[in-house]
Design brief:
alpha/beta; TIM Barrel; eight-stranded parallel β-barrel; 13 helices; 8 strands; about 50% helix; about 15% strand
Length: about 280
Amino acid sequence: MRRTTQLRQLLSQGRLLVSPFTYDAFTAKIAEAVGFPIVYMSGFGTSMSRGYPDVGLLTMSEMVENARRIALTVSVPVIADADTGYGNPLNAARTVREYEQAGVAGVHLEDQVFPKKCGFFEGKQVIPMEEHIAKLRAAMDARTDPDFLIIARTDALAVNGWDDTLRRCRAYHKSGADMVFIDGIKTREDLELYARELRDIPRLYNGDLASTQEVERLGFKVMIHRGSMLAVYKAVRGVMEELKQKGVVDKARYATREEVAGLLGLDKVYEMEKRYTAVG
């Protein structure tokens, strides 16, 4: 079964689909091994892994290549951050074709001015609603697989407030987007308003203001969670500081080589070596 179709079937079951942020093949494999039904490729995380803040410095080809590596590594559907589509509607159409060919099951496209900024950073600007509708239509027309998911993200909340944000979401969904995504939700009250005002539209939530059980109760279809990505910084820095300060690291803080190699499929490599070893 194509992973686009697999994603559609998962969404049709009516349960919340949750994914921690992942940013490379390794973190994606961990998410799959833990049992998450989908994998989300974070633009923040992808930028982070290349040493940049999430302010639109990565190119479309860099993002697609990372998505390709992740999709090749896991067997569950991958939803990827596609930023603004990297230009005008023609660019957005090419972006969708590239992500689709990379094996991704869906993307979200946002209505920020390019170069964009992380949805929780200051200084965001948004393009006119009609311009983003044109991008979304071009993106949808570019699909060769009708099951490929197009999620319309808006960053208008911090810029223009709730009235414009809700107007955009309704218009984006009416134009044919499969799901909407308001980024920059910072309070529990805003999360509940988001759920209440758009209760008849499929929605994605990005945040950690409520448990997955509560987010499911609010009727969201997809939830992405930043905790894993930010925990990496704290954990790795803590180990490095301990080594620097004490000259030794408590081994309880890290996994064994065997655990990591097992996740990466070392046993399968050994099996293949035996199977294909030439017999004299």
